[in-house]
């Protein structure tokens, strides 16, 4: 991903968070999803994949929270759990004050209208046997949003205008569009349901650099215009830096740091976050940044390490890390991190050497 992504960064103050007393749109508490492993002659459970193992976060109305981390860390599983694509192992998912993880399937329809998704692959997420009109009309019909055919046509024209596609393209088939145009159709399909929250699961990772910038700008414009909340799942911190209000960093099924965008990019307080940021291309030609190379491989989610799950790769590991799991603690207002180093005085904390934050 090029560092020259041309977008308009959001401001950290664009939305208010839980500290204001306002009820969050989405609240996830201690979410766990453990997938059983089966084997042997009788197909019994031989273990579990701890894909998500105690994740908590909130999203305010009109806010973008980016969930970032390496492939396999569990971030897409979190998105699918919020969407109720499967039952969770434990925890709670609350949408605008209503707990949705325990709702029976017969009661999920109102929730599904309010929470929509934009998938990673624009080529496989659209039915090749349906024209664009039918693709966009499907959620409108499913949720009973149009009074009659004239109202349906008006809504379809509006949503095509909103994603900046020509109205006459509505009669075409998905294969007649480029990747960026297909992703606009995917966004239009999500918008057609008039949602409050859109989950973007690697929504720009399959696109070219210039097209990424266009889609990111579109999502930002839609958020400002419609007051949408976004859960933006991505491994691309160069994109995240331009479009998010807050960032939650995941590692091996757990969130290890949560902070406003500016705070996290200027002064990360977890070694894993530091390593991720060190790999982001520097926008100024000739500028230097010390790259942090993590040793070893990501441990298996079937048998995660004891103590801090990052200790097997951490350059600052000490004895406490191997036996005691760190909790998310505040390191500054609105900034939390799960690292024992933050319990040390600043002069002894390698994450804040000499009081100087990471650059």
UniProtKB/TrEMBL annotation:
PANTHER family: D,D-DIPEPTIDE TRANSPORT ATP-BINDING PROTEIN DDPF-RELATED, TRANSPORT ATP-BINDING PROTEIN. Keywords: ATP-binding, Nucleotide-binding, Transport. Residues 26-277 form the ABC transporter domain. Residues 1-19 have a biased composition (Polar residues). It is a peripheral membrane protein. InterPro entries: AAA+_ATPase, ABC_transp_ATP-bind, ABC_transporter-like_ATP-bd, ABC_transporter-like_CS, Oligopep_ABC_C, P-loop_NTPase. Belongs to the ABC transporter superfamily. Its main location: membrane. CDD domains: ABC_NikE_OppD_transporters. PROSITE patterns: ABC_TRANSPORTER_1, ABC_TRANSPORTER_2. GO terms for molecular function: ATP binding. The keyword Aminoacyl-tRNA synthetase does not apply. Pfam families: ABC_tran, oligo_HPY. Residues 1-21 are annotated as: Disordered. It is found in: Cell inner membrane. This is ABC transporter ATP-binding protein.
